[in-house]
Amino acid sequence: MHKNIWHPFTIIKDSPEPLKVKRGMGAYLELEDGRVVMDCISSWWVNMHGHSHPGIAKAIYEQAKTLEHVIFAGFTHEPAEQLAEMITGKLPKNLNRLFYSDNGSTAVEVAMKMAYQHWKNLGEDRKTFICFDGAYHGDTLGAMSVGERSLFTEVFKELMFDVEVIPFPETWIDDSKRASKEDAVIEQLEDLLDKTPGKYAGIIMEPLIQGAGGMRMCSEEFLQKIHWVNRQFDVLLIFDEVMTGFGRTGDYFACLKAQVEPDIICLSKGISGGFMPLAATVCSDDIYNSFNSSEAIKTFWHGHSYTGNPLGCAAGVASWKLLEENESVFKNMEQIHLNNFERIKAHPRIFRLRVKGTISAFDIVDGGEVGWEEGYLNPISKELRKRALDLGYLLRPLGNVLYLMPPYCVSEEELNGIYDAILELV
Ligand SMILES: Cc1ncc(COP(=O)(O)O)c(C=O)c1O
Q1: What's the CA-to-centroid distance between 253 and ligand 1, angstroms?
Q2: Shared domain check, 289 and 396
Q3: Ligand 1 atom at shortest distance from the alpha carbon of 268
Q4: Which pLDDT score is estimated for 14?
């Protein structure tokens, strides 16, 4: 460990030395020791078109020569406007106002503050958020509050605010209980909203796939039911698409795939193709209009030094163009995953196979190991990571959940090769 660096999500004592990366090339990373590994998880899910993509690198360079940064209050610039038009042009029609920040957690904080203040501006006091078990929305205090209370949040529990938690009806291929699980959640939600109308500011969820919680997937129909209930009870629906945005679920956004119009959507990760820290929170005209006042108390007093950073926005514009060029890739990747599922589904340790667009996952079940436990701390994660690296693949299982989220530049042969490796590993 470098004497001056403190790494994230890393138990300091006894952790292996971090691997030093010399360069990135498409789907591959070259390590300092000469090894080359395929990045099967797009480096924490941000890298959409491959590492060091020359088109995005050039866009950042050109922008850096022109305007590297400018205060975003009272000033604006072309890349910020262009990117906002591109994103809102594709989102459902009601989502028109884009607020920039710089990471997924802040995109979520902004969404919650907007929702809370929206009701205040309308003269209503709605404090409570409804969220899902297993959720992960980031590591700032607000984002932690609406996420799963776990080992990661335990130390901070007294600093977090209260929320209402409902179950996430996770499902998988050939799950015969999907509809009944969904109905039970919808009933519970209706009950909550019916008992105390006017208490809830909004529902926040990761649509279609809960990422860090274990790549838990739900159906498009479930999102439609949630949307319908929301409309009945006039509660805001917040989609955290920090992971699911920009093609990941097989459409540009999960809300499009499910044909649902949330009131607020949070975006980051893939927004800049993995090149620059950038995030956006997009809200409906209704929400924006409740702030559209000359009264200072109704103003959204929120911002970050790097809000709307021109380099990030220029990377975003270049990445969006590549996304459009590669539409068929992210729309067709699900079928390649499914073809490979045919090869691995009979394996005795592979369970609960699931896929949405470019993301596939399954649980690894007990192979008789002592101390086996489901969840993030399952030691199989560490073991698989190491063995996968020996085979030339960067995989980072979430406990006993193995998942793939490759950049869109991987070929069908390369993706099939990852599944060959998986069969060797499990
Ligand atoms: C759905 C979701 N929301 C929010 C976040 C937080 O994003 P960041 O790590 O950029 O703060 C993540 C990160 O994994 C995420 O998956």
Answers
A1: 16
A2: no
A3: 10
A4: 81
Q: How far is the CA of 269 from the centre of ligand 1 (A)?
A: 8
pLDDT per residue over 74-129, tens digit each?
Answer: 999 999 999 999 999 999 999 999 999 999 999 999 999 999 999 999 999 999 99
Q: How far is the CA of 105 from the centre of ligand 1 (A)?
A: 6
Show the tokens assigned to 259.
């044909």
Best probe residue, ligand 1, of 144, 153, 266, 268 (max atoms within 8 Å of C-beta): 268
Considering the domain architecture, whether residues 340 and 296 belong to the same structural domain is answered as no
Confidence tier at 370 by pLDDT (50, 70, 90): low
Domain C-terminal end among 298, 324, 350 = 324
Residue minimizing CA distance to atom 10 of ligand 1: 104
Q: 270 and 168, same structural domain?
A: yes
Q: Are residues 85 and 199 in the same domain?
A: yes
- Distance, in Å, from the CA atom of 247 to the CA atom of 270, rounded to the nearest integer, reads 9
pLDDT at 244 over 90: yes
> Residue 187, exposed/middle/buried by CB under 10 A (0-12, 13-18, 19+)?
exposed
Whether the pLDDT of residue 377 is over 80: the answer is: no
Within a 10 A sphere around the Cβ of 405, how many other Cβ atoms? Answer: 24
Task: Please give the Cα distance from 213 to 114 (Å, whole number).
Answer: 25
pTM value is 0.97
Average pLDDT over residues 271-294: 98
Specify burial of residue 395 (Cβ count, 10 A radius: 0-12, 13-18, 19+): buried
